[in-house]
Amino acid sequence: MQPSMNQEQLKTIVKEALAEVLEERQDLLHEAVAAALEDIALSRAIKEGEKTGRITRDEVFKSL
Fold it and tell me: pTM of the entire structure?
């Protein structure tokens, strides 16, 4: 028969495993945070853009 594991033991093991992965692969956390910040910035830019008037395609390319 296999020994059973209670919820607290499982929680501890998962926390330790996650901490170990994040410690060894900090690049994964960095990429996830960077992607989240980009998404937030894009969302805010879209909301701000919805408040402004429309401009022509030519006006966009003139500013670029």
Answer: 0.55
